[in-house]
Design goal:
The chain is of the alpha+beta class. The chain has two domains: about 100 residues, Alpha-Beta Plaits (2-Layer Sandwich); about 120 residues, Alpha-Beta Plaits (2-Layer Sandwich). It has seven helices and eight strands; from the N terminus they run αβαββααββαββααβ. The radius of gyration is 22 Å and the shape is globular. The relative contact order is 0.17.
Length: about 260
């Protein structure tokens, strides 16, 4: 009787330990709350927008606890876009910081002066992000060594985001490194956001677009990748992403970006 009780207690302890381990693995690798912002500038106004960020906005952001991670423009920037990534301690901190930013007399004066000849932002899009458990902690500095970043967005089939995460966590991230790609950050849309249950957004760094093409070519032929893809799709009962659900955009850091 005592032996049975002891065995039961040991089994229960192991189960709890396993549950704790699983819970720990699901925690974001980087606990900060992130925001990806995209600005579309009217024709001819992007240089003015860039100047405002370079000379004023970054400093005012810092003043109000808004952490600038990276600023990019697309390699093929036909839409006059500026894409940037910010970080905060929490969503609540984000709301407080932006409220203070917009109320700041310095910002109001800068906005007035820089828009004296017309609006320099035509459209703004914002997406809140949280780090996946297999993402590295985001760093700033000269990381791309003069190369390019690639932002890739995957839309998973219904209920398949955990399968997609498992494939990246256990296989894809390592295979990317094997073929010369630098993993910069992996994110989900924050809970409550559009596509939160189906979106994986991540950033890679390459020496060049040509190097990216070469790396992905080698990656696609790798037996390890073929095996991982086949096994993950068999386990999930089909493709992990929707048709046309993989998007890619090459980005170059601005001269004032903390991450290059």
């Amino acid at each position: 009787m005592k032996q049975n009780l002891f065995a039961t207690l040991i089994a229960g302890a192991c189960l709890l330990a396993g549950s704790a381990s699983a819970a720990d693995s699901a925690k974001p690798a980087d606990p900060r709350f992130f925001e990806l912002r995209t600005y579309w500038s009217p024709e001819g106004k992007l240089p003015d927008l860039q100047s405002r960020f370079r000379d004023h906005t970054l400093g005012i952001f810092k003043k109000h606890g808004i952490e600038s991670i990276a600023y990019w423009v697309p390699v093929d920037n036909k839409e006059n876009k500026l894409v940037y990534l910010l970080a905060y301690p929490s969503k609540e901190a984000r709301e407080k910081s932006w409220k203070e930013f917009f109320a700041d007399p310095e910002w109001k004066e800068v906005a007035k002066k820089t828009e004296a000849n017309g609006k320099i932002v035509a459209k703004v899009e914002s997406t809140y992000l949280v780090s996946t458990d297999y993402s590295a902690m985001l760093k700033t500095g000269d990381l791309s060594k003069g190369g390019v970043f690639e932002m890739r967005t995957y839309t998973a089939n219904e209920g398949k985001l955990p399968n997609l995460d498992a494939r990246f966590r256990d296989h894809t991230v390592k295979l990317f490194e094997k073929h010369g790609m630098m993993n910069y950050g992996y994110f989900h849309v924050a809970p409550g956001g559009k596509g939160a249950d189906a979106t994986l957004l991540y950033l890679l760094s390459h020496k060049s677009q040509a190097a990216a093409k070469e790396s992905f070519g080698a990656f696609g032929k790798d037996p390890g990748w073929k095996e991982a893809r086949e096994a993950s799709e068999k386990n999930a009962g089909g493709s992990l992403t929707i048709q046309g659900g993989v998007k890619s955009e090459f980005l170059v850091p601005t001269d004032y970006s903390p991450t290059k």
